[in-house]
Amino acid sequence: MDKVKEEIKNPAVSDSCCGSGSSEPCCGGGESAVSASVDGDVRDTVQEYYAKAAKASCGCGDQSSLYYNEEMLNSLPDDVATFSLGCGNPIRAAEMKAGETVLDLGSGGGLDCFFAEKEVGKTGYVIGIDMTPEMLLRSTESAKKMGLDNVDFRKGFLEEMPVEDNTVDVVISNCVINLSPDKSLVFDEIFRVLKPGGRIAVSDIVVNGEIPEHILKLKDSWSSCAAGSLTIEDFTQGLLDAGLEEVVIAAKDANGDLLEKNPENELFSAIITAKKPI
Q1: Is 118 exposed, middle or buried (0-12, 13-18, 19+ CB in 10 A)?
Q2: What is the pLDDT along the chain (278 residues), one digit of tens a residue?
Q3: Residues of the domain holding 140
Q4: Nearest to 208 by CA among 68, 32, 34
Q5: What SS3 string covers 189-224?
Q6: How far apart are CA 190 and CA 96, in angstroms?
Q7: How many domains, in total, are found in the chain?
Q8: What is the DSSP string of 221-271?
Q9: CATH number of residue 149's parent domain
């Protein structure tokens, strides 16, 4: 574990749409393990959930303003800027550079892809993967309206990404990895597509301890970013097992107490970063 730095701060899920009792389609999101044994209909349930969100053109109200500053939001059309289904801001942690290739896992309406495009510029390239046709239609239409030919939305699954090996500089994701029923495959795929020296910057929900039983029993607990959330230890070990290093897990606001002072078994929004060895 000498390559791992765990910087866990205060739980930060209470101010997001990803609260443990939420049934809103506001974020990615049961067993607390990297590879979970779940019913085969999990993917269908999640897809139906987010298809409804896309068709209703509803994000999380003003959730975007919780994670992105006014300047960022004003740089995009209103219908794009206000459609947020995430639980944090992976763009800031990604530290993108001009000309880089970015991959967004579970790109939804395209918000983070469009922010990423502004970071990498016209010499860069942004790929968004989503399994929900309604989301892909929404994001693709938005890209066309904005005249972006370097943003590419593709239908696919996180466990089998339609991306070539060693082609991506940075992988981002916003509250989506918790939706996968087999996160070990997701981590393996992340490692596969990253260039040597590439990195990840992911916003997701993690749990300090085990997920409380009452949360696992909630209706739509998978699609509301609860039941599929990993423990801090499982998320860290999953990335290490896939071959990544320098794993850092920090609470979204990164200004609270240390891990041992966090309430046991509490879900919170975190930023996870790691690198692929050169």
Answers
A1: middle
A2: 444 344 333 333 333 333 333 334 444 333 333 433 344 465 665 555 555 554 565 444 445 555 666 777 677 667 666 666 677 889 999 999 999 999 999 998 899 999 999 999 999 999 999 998 888 998 999 999 999 999 999 999 999 999 999 999 999 999 899 888 899 999 999 999 999 999 999 999 888 877 767 666 555 655 555 567 888 899 999 999 999 999 999 876 543 433 444 455 677 789 999 999 99
A3: 5-275
A4: 32
A5: HHHHHEEEEEEEEEEEEEEECCCCHHHHCCCCCCCC
A6: 17
A7: 1
A8: TTTTTSTTPEEHHHHHHHHHHHT-EEEEEEETT--S--GGGSPTTEEEEEE
A9: 3.40.50.150
Cα–Cα distance for residue pair 243/191, rounded to 1 Å: 7
Structure tokens at 199: 């990195």
- The tokens describing 246, both together, are 């320098």
Tokens 């909630």 correspond to what residue? 218
